[in-house]
TrEMBL record:
Name under which the protein is recorded: DNA damage-inducible protein 1
UniProt-listed InterPro entries: DDI1_N, Peptidase_aspartic_DDI1-type, Peptidase_aspartic_dom_sf, UBA, UBA-like_sf, Ubiquitin-like_dom, Ubiquitin-like_domsf
Keyword Magnesium recorded: no
Organism of provenance: Zostera marina (Eelgrass)
Sequence ranges of Polar residues compositional bias: 351-360
Xref: PANTHER family: ASPARTYL PROTEASE DDI-RELATED (PTHR12917), AT13091P (PTHR12917:SF1)
GO BP terms, alphabetized: proteolysis
A single GO molecular function term of this UniProt record: polyubiquitin modification-dependent protein binding
Pfam families linked: Asp_protease, UBA, ubiquitin
UniProtKB keywords: Aspartyl protease, Cytoplasm, Hydrolase, Protease
Length: 408
């Protein structure tokens, strides 16, 4: 194993030793490296002096640990205490800080690997330095604890079922951690929220923020928005039903045609009216196809009419706070049609059911959708229980649930 020795000549020395090595032999090795005689060396670990006959593993010295070496003071010559306490803090913080400051090699190493600790050594706040030293010590202890657990598993009974389960879980968790680290390095934006696609439109002359969702089969308008646009009088209640997906919402009917303005051009549009409060207007696949729209993410615009009209997608700050689709829609008490929604809140397909028999079929559909989301999270390496908990925290939004589990 490798240990680091802070020598009295203001330098850090990394030496490779056997875990069962005696302290006396370590001193002999350091005599060659530093030129300090064994008789003058005083080694300390966690604030305690190490006896020559003691073994490294016997006093708890492990991989990557720091040992402090000082020279025994001659008569009449004061000796600065550069040792560390058992909690990782310095016994004499001022002397320890000065000692590290004067070692250019050590400071360069710290600036490269631990900039915050390097800044603490250069600063004047001793309390901050001591707290950071304690924190690094606790981190080392935690790492050693995990390594000991791994070592214990390696030497456990190969025929013990519980031990094998722990080994399997440890290997799986290691793969997850490596996957998470790779994502942090190469794909950090996956842990941030995605801004949905909204554009400015006018419906019957009233400006609105329209959510563009190519995963929704039909274009949808809320009852509140239809009323403010003066279109509720055109509602055809023969097309009542239930929208089912992430949640449920009652379909009040359909408005067969109304003018919408995108850019400077007017287009005819039809849409279903939903009794929901978490969105105003959803521009679905039916109208995207009808008007030959192109979702151009490179230029961040929506092109309508094969590109004859282009409108920019709105920035996050311009989207009203109530226009969010990550929550569940209100669950109705009755209905005659079932419309599964996409994860963005839109429909995928419509299934007509007879009144009174829709609830059981809707429940089965909801359960199958929920099970599919659990299955996706389980394939990513999470347990079923954790997957269900994460989905419940984020209203069945599987992307947010996955981000939460990876970050946990």
């Amino acid at each position: 194993m490798k240990i680091t020795v802070m020598a009295s000549e203001e330098q850090f020395i990394t030496v490779e030793v056997d875990p069962n090595e005696s302290v006396e032999n370590v001193k002999a090795l350091l005599e060659v490296e530093t030129g300090v005689a064994i008789q003058k060396q005083q080694l300390q670990f966690n604030g305690k002096e190490m006896g020559d006959s003691e073994r490294l593993n016997g006093i708890g010295v492990g991989e990557g640990d720091l040992i402090t070496m000082t020279q025994k003071a001659s008569a009449g010559v004061p000796n600065r205490d550069l040792s560390l306490n058992s909690d990782g803090s310095a016994v004499n913080a001022i002397a320890f800080q000065e000692h590290i400051r004067q070692d250019s090699q050590s400071m360069a190493h710290l600036f490269q690997n631990d900039p915050s600790l390097a800044q603490a050594f250069l600063g004047n706040d001793i309390n901050t330095l001591q707290n950071l030293l304690r924190e690094r010590h606790q981190r080392t202890l935690e790492l050693r604890r995990k390594e000991n657990e791994q070592l214990a598993l390696m030497y456990s009974d190969p025929f013990d079922i519980e031990s094998q389960k722990k080994i399997e879980e440890s290997i799986r968790q290691k793969g997850i951690d490596e996957n998470w680290q790779a994502a942090i390095e190469h794909n950090p934006e996956s842990f941030a929220g995605v801004v949905m696609l909204y554009v400015d439109m006018e419906v019957n002359g009233i400006p609105i923020k329209a959510f563009v969702d190519s995963g929704a089969q039909s274009t949808i308008i809320s009852k509140r928005c239809a009323e403010s646009c003066g279109l509720l009088r055109l509602l055809d209640q023969r097309y009542k039903g239930i929208a089912v997906g992430v949640g449920q919402s009652e379909i009040l009917g359909r408005i067969h045609v109304a003018p919408i303005k995108i850019g400077s051009t007017f287009y005819p549009c039809s849409f279903a009216v939903l009794d929901t409060s978490n969105m105003d207007f959803l521009f679905g696949l039916d109208m995207l196809r009808k008007h030959q729209c192109i979702i151009d993410l490179k230029e961040n615009v929506l092109r309508v009419g094969a590109g004859e009209v282009s409108v920019p997608f709105l920035q996050e700050k311009d989207i009203p706070s109530h226009n969010t689709l990550d929550g569940s829609l209100k669950k109705p008490s009755h209905g005659s049609a079932s419309v599964p929604e996409s994860s963005g809140g839109g429909e995928k397909r419509a299934t007509t059911t007879t009144p009174g028999s829709g609830n059981s079929e809707e429940n089965r559909l909801e359960e199958s959708i929920f099970e599919a989301k659990i299955g996706k999270l389980v394939t990513l390496g999470f347990s079923r229980q954790d997957s269900i908990k994460a989905l419940s925290l984020f209203n069945n939004n599987e992307e947010q649930a996955a981000g939460y589990l990876f970050g946990g």
